[in-house]
Amino acid sequence: MAAPTDAEPRPVVTVGAHILDVLARPVEGIPAGQDTVVVDRIRVTAAGAAAGTAVALARLGNAVVSVGAIGEDDLGDLLVTIMTREGVDVGGLVRRTADQTSASILPIRPDGGRPSFHVPGANLTLTPGAVGAGLLAAAAVVHLGGPDVTFGLNDPAFFTVLEAARAGGTVVTMDLLSNMPDLVRGAAAFLPHVDHFLPNEEQAVAMTGEQDVERAALALLAEGPASVVVTLGEKGSLVATADGVRRLPALPVEVVDTTGCGDAYCAGFITGLLHGRDVAEAARWGTAAAATVAQGLGSDACLTDLDAVLALLK
């Protein structure tokens, strides 16, 4: 994947988990035997902490390149089609013949809850060799989306590339995909190489062992990031920086589905940074993006453009 030329804007590069989601809503239970339940809607979306964030970033007006591993299969073809249609440059995706594209089936409950059936697939095969050092160095922001499940990136060689990019002015953000304690704790190795870390509450607690979310955020901050932004669902989010801890409320919207809210939050946050906003204001942009997505089905639901997102803050 070639780096952009001087005449092109510096892109956001999302690196990590790429998943194809199949969502149905509303689902109150799995029918017995071969019974059929009629639902209101079924959708297929690009998802995962890299692919879902890439689509949301593109919808918010950013140039985006996505890097990850997917299968040489129909699921991968569909994922590429969706992301390309959204304006994401998918030249950084590598195709695997021995592993399927990661995918999830999500039966969404009437209250927005989202149990899942998930195949990790090719995400587990991503290694530093698939990530172009020049591309990261040329990026305005590199977003590590799900290094807890693309653990092949947990490599000193990749950390060296990240540090070289940061030395050249690239900002590095990070979000996680799973809530599995062992995977989450493994991702702590990335923290010294990250500028802004955006876990959810369960991930922050699992990574630190702290039961109080504010103490967890401060413990993570001590590992190197300039900010730690913990998303708290309906309770909003918590922003920890060297200046202290601040809580931001969630926006009052009717929640249809929480799938992709974390990815949208990251996209809004990154977009705020790229527009020159400070961390707290960027977190408000993230809050608005997440609230927008929560009002529909799937990780890109209701997300049209930046102006519509920012209108929620007025």
From TrEMBL:
Residues 13-303 form the Carbohydrate kinase PfkB domain. Its EC number is 2.7.1.-. Keywords: Kinase, Transferase. The keyword ATP-binding does not apply. The keyword Transferase applies. Gene3D superfamilies: 3.40.1190.20. One of its GO terms (molecular function) is kinase activity. InterPro entries: PfkB_dom, Ribo/fructo_kinase, Ribokinase-like. Pfam families: PfkB. This is Carbohydrate kinase family protein.
